[in-house]
Write a structure and sequence with these properties.
alpha/beta, 239 residues, 9 helices, 7 strands, 12% strand
């Protein structure tokens, strides 16, 4: 795809809560399916709007949204954050420092039903480092302060979180979600094909694969080199 499958109107409406955050001068980065669709042109279904903000501004960001739009801050973890009961009867949350808001009055069909606000450190993101992100300035100047990770920064963040979970243990549901995002990026935002050999008969790495590999942090090379893309890609909702 060479453009998002979501209309400009849908993107603009989905980003309203993020604009409420940047309007009070809190840096904000769009995460998950919205980022994959709007910037990386993945034909993903849109679920909760997930946003990253500096750790110290998580609660201020939620207040900025709730004061401007009909959302209410919910107590406790979101159900989607809880581990599968078959894996952990205690159902630990994968996002213990995140908050979530729920829509209480729908104004448009594209309004996000729920909003998840995560501290940037969970995904080793640095929103203030503009070399790692881009924006949707062509969409509208209103969105120019909202950031989206570049493909390389997105992959580094996802792989880094898989290798070193901030919660200190392997969370199966979180792992599945992050691998889906990686599968999305490999399928729709690179020229890598799971059917291509990674090494050519000459012994050199396949050029498209090598380009993506070398763009990653060195500590993420081993995971990427050993990943079974055939396993990741079928999990893509748009695949």
């Amino acid at each position: 795809y060479d453009s998002s499958t979501d209309s400009v109107e849908t993107q603009d409406i989905r980003l309203k809560p993020a604009r409420a955050i940047t309007d009070v001068h809190i840096p904000c980065l769009v995460w998950a399916e919205d980022a994959l669709s709007f910037v990386h042109f993945v034909p993903a279904c849109l679920f909760a709007l997930q946003l990253l903000v500096p750790d110290e501004h998580v609660h201020a960001a939620s207040s900025a949204i709730a004061s401007k739009f009909p959302y209410t801050l919910m107590d406790g973890p979101n159900e989607s954050w809880l581990e599968y009961v078959i894996v952990d009867s205690g159902q630990a949350s994968c996002f213990p420092s995140s908050v979530h808001l729920r829509l209480i009055l729908r104004q448009h069909e594209d309004d996000p039903e729920t909003i998840h606000i995560h501290p940037q450190s969970f995904f080793s993101a640095d929103i203030r480092n503009r070399t790692l992100s881009t924006n949707l300035a062509p969409l509208t100047l209103l969105n120019s302060q909202i950031r989206f990770l570049t493909r390389t920064a997105f992959l580094n963040s996802l792989i880094g979180t898989l290798l070193d979970p901030p919660i200190g243990f392997h969370h199966w549901k979180l792992t599945q979600n992050l691998e889906v995002y990686i599968g999305y990026i490999i399928t729709y935002s690179t020229s890598i094909s799971p059917s291509y050999p990674r090494a050519l008969p000459s012994g050199e790495l396949e050029p498209n694969y090598n380009f993506v590999l070398l763009s990653l942090k060195p500590e993420n090379h081993h995971w990427f080199d050993k990943a079974d893309f055939k396993e990741l890609i079928p999990r893509c909702k748009g695949g």
